[in-house]
Amino acid sequence: MTIKPGQTYRAANPLDEGRRIFIEAYQPGAEDAYVVDANTGKRFRRIRVSQLHTKPVTRTGQPRRSGYVLEANGSNR
After folding, report:
1. 3-state secondary structure string, 4-72?
2. Within its chain, how far is the Cα of 12 from the centroid?
3. Largest CB tally within 10 Å, which of 9, 14, 54, 76?
4. pTM tops 0.70
5. Which residues pair with 22 in a beta bridge?
6. Over the stretch 39-77, which tens digit does the pLDDT of each residue have?
C-alpha cells in the first residue's frame, strides 16, 4: 500500500460517524504517519500505518470495523 501526504481516510467503525483524517506527513517505510482531522486541520497526532487500509473489506470480504479506509476522492481537506 502506498501512503503519502495529502491522502484522506475515513473511520471504518460505524460508531465513529464517518470521522476523517488527513495524512500530513509520512516517511516511506516508517511505522507511523502523522495525521490531522480532515475537516478542521487540528488535532495533530501520530497513527500506526497498520491502521490504514485501502479497501473497506477484509481479505474474507467482511466489512472493516477498525482502522481507517482510504477515500477514493483523495485530498479534500
Report:
1. CCCCEEEECCHHHCCCEEEEEECCCCCCEEEEEECCCCCCCEEEEHHHEECCCECCCCCECCCCEEECC
2. 9
3. 9
4. yes
5. 8, 36
6. 999 999 999 999 999 999 999 999 999 999 999 765 555
